[in-house]
């Protein structure tokens, strides 16, 4: 990897500039809602970006990162973490049950708890590793057939199952339908969290994180606005 000390001034200042801009947006949106920007965790989604692209953000002082594939994260984060203490790694999106043990070993927070079989697999992996990590329940907020996430009606039962299995659930997570106004979906997720006595809300991406923060997001997951575009998969 490129060590932070080897970064060019341009790379470092561009990363610092993008980070400051997103932080400003979060601060503005939080203020409108009577909250503090510092109370919102900005998760920099570094999927598809290599260690050299991530290093400038670490050098700019950022510590919370997110990935959506276990294997990809295994390939870059152990070294990056060794170089910088205090990194917090989030897994966002779908998780296959057969990757539960690897996910528990590598990540600090999981944002994709969405079905009973995954609760079982994660509880087993956490017990085996003697390591407990909080898991947001991902809700299929737009009831989209092709999308992951727990059905809205099934959230209370999944929450109860997770708690019975000893898994801490800090809140709910969603990805609203693409190309639709996201605010009603964010508001619905916030209401569901309240109804279930949960305070965490993982919602908002590059295009809509300010709206999400105004509607109560505690965690925003921002990739493109921090790293630039991703190559097509
Ligand atoms: C990729 C991804 C993001 C970040 O998306 P951007 O639009 O690049 O900010 C957020 N959440 C999840 C679940 C993702 O997969």
Automatic annotation (TrEMBL):
For the Alanine racemase N-terminal domain, which residue ranges apply?
36-231
According to the UniProt entry, its GO molecular function terms are:
pyridoxal phosphate binding
Required co-factors: pyridoxal 5'-phosphate
Q: List the Gene3D superfamilies.
A: Alanine racemase
Q: Which SUPFAM superfamilies match?
A: PLP-binding barrel
Keywords in alphabetical order, please: Pyridoxal phosphate
Extract the InterPro entries matched here: Ala_racemase_N, PLP-binding_barrel, PyrdxlP_homeostasis
N6-(pyridoxal phosphate)lysine: residues bearing it = 47
Indicate yes or no for the key word Transcription regulation: no
**Which family is it part of?**
Belongs to the pyridoxal phosphate-binding protein YggS/PROSC family.
Q: What does this protein do?
A: Pyridoxal 5'-phosphate (PLP)-binding protein, which is involved in PLP homeostasis.
Q: What is this protein called?
A: Pyridoxal phosphate homeostasis protein
